[in-house]
Structures are given as structure tokens and as C-alpha cells.
Amino acid sequence: MCIYDTSISVILRPPHEPDLELRGQLIRSLGALREMLPGSFVERQRACGRPSCHCADGKRLHPQYQISVLIDGKPKALNIPAEWVDQVREKIAMRRRFEAAAATICKLNLKRFLKEKEDRQV
To answer: Which among 44, 49, 50, 45 has a CA at the least distance from the CA of 60?
Structure first.
């Protein structure tokens, strides 16, 4: 926040607080994470089951892509089309970044809370 005093043309800024600046940056960055997905990305190799396919020998298997998620408290594996793999990986990575940002924000808030509490007791 800047305070403008037009009578003396001076800009007054609050004291530099790196924790608040970091918290603000993290909060502003969260808007970019609106497409995040829960779960974990899983890539498996499997045989398709057709006896004449190249995978029938068990050596040259087909890739299968899934996300593992909890739905109503139960683990589910959802198949992902190969053309969605990059997008789904990025959306899951977004959730991890969100969790890291939220943890950092909470840590900063706790630090500020404890300092304020200490200052009031002195």
C-alpha cells in the first residue's frame, strides 16, 4: 500500500516485509492453478489380450496411462488417453505447486502470528 501526500509530493511506503511480499506473490500465483487435478499420474505397460498382437510375447507391451484418485474415499484408477498425457501431468503438477504454496503461506502466517503474539505480551 502506498500513501500519497499531495501537499508535499512524497510517497510513503510501509516497512519492507519480505514475508508479506512472498505471501502476496504466492497468493497471486494461485489463480493460474485453477485447472489442477488431484491424484497421481501412473504409467503402466500391459498386454492388450489379442493373441496376434506384438505384445502377446510379454516383451513389447502397450503403454497405459492413468490417474489414481480417491473418489468418495475409495481409490480409483481412471484411464487417460495418450493424447492427454502431457496436459494431465501438468495439471497434477499444478496441484503439487498449490500444496507447496499453501504450506508456505501457512508457515509465513504462523510466523507472523507468533511474532504478533510475542509483541503483545512484551
So the answer is: 45
Closest C-alpha among 97, 107, 94 to residue 19: 107
Give the residue among 21, 22, 4, 23 at the shortest CA–CA distance from 13: 4
Output the nine-digit C-alpha cell for 69: 484418485
Q: Which tens digit of pLDDT belongs to each residue from 71-106? A: 999 999 999 999 999 999 999 998 998 899 889 989
Q: Please, what is the average pLDDT of the chain?
A: 84
**Cα separation of 26 and 109, whole Å?**
12
SS3 104: helix
9 vs 26, residue with greater confidence = 26
Interacting residues of 80 by C-beta distance below 8 A, sequence separation 6+: 41, 65, 66, 67, 88
